[in-house]
Amino acid sequence: MSAISVTHLGKSFGGVRAVEDLSFTVERGTLTAFLGPNGAGKTTTLRMILGLVAPSEGTATIGGTPYRDLDRPVTTVGAVLEATAFNPGLSARAHLEALRLAAGLDPARVAYVLAQVDLTDAADRRVRGFSLGMRQRLALASALLGDPEILILDEPANGLDPAGIRWLRGFLRACTHEGRTILVSTHVLAEIQQIADHVIIVGAGRLTWQGPLTPETDLEELYMRVTG
């Protein structure tokens, strides 16, 4: 069974059609790039997969189950939708500890995920002093806290400098080597081409192209051709 399955998904906000009859699957153990221009419906789709927005039509499931019906969602799927939703007065460690307690996770997970995202040395600094790149890493640590099989990431490269983007590339590659499934929305085509297995491209809420990413694929040319 696919890790993520989206079937005839649609969403309207008032008179605005954000997603239109969208269907795709994300297979287990793969890194799938979810691409499209701003306003193409990517974030709305990810929010529907995560049960944060109710579809107007269609279904979105994780391992065949809607997110809201998962037994322990934190250990099944981790998500990064924005890197600013932190209490600025808390330290990185305190933020993660609060999440750990709420989810009933092993206390050792906090130090483990801080090390995974290279934030150990900044663990006791208040988040208000973090750069956007450091906030992105803390958001990734939060997503990894439950050691989930699946990661859903919306623009995780936002605010990262070139060194940070290279770090993210290595981080995502390491996650797939661990057997995780990753669905990542991004505009950094040159970087994602180096590590993605599969590509889904949307425009105006509709699927415009999907398929495997091979060494011969010119992703930028493909993207420009199908998004117009």
UniProtKB/TrEMBL annotation:
Entry-linked InterPro entries: AAA+_ATPase, ABC_transporter-like_ATP-bd, ABC_transporter-like_CS, P-loop_NTPase
Protein origin, superkingdom: Bacteria
Gene3D superfamilies, alphabetized: P-loop containing nucleotide triphosphate hydrolases (3.40.50.300)
Domain ABC transporter as annotated: residue spans: 4-226
Name of this protein: ATP-binding cassette domain-containing protein
Pfam families xrefs: ABC_tran
Keywords, alphabetical: ATP-binding, Nucleotide-binding, Transport
One Gene Ontology molecular-function label: ATP binding
Organism in which the protein naturally occurs: Streptosporangium oxazolinicum
Family designation: Belongs to the ABC transporter superfamily.
PANTHER family reported in the protein's UniProt record: ABC TRANSPORTER, ATP-BINDING PROTEIN
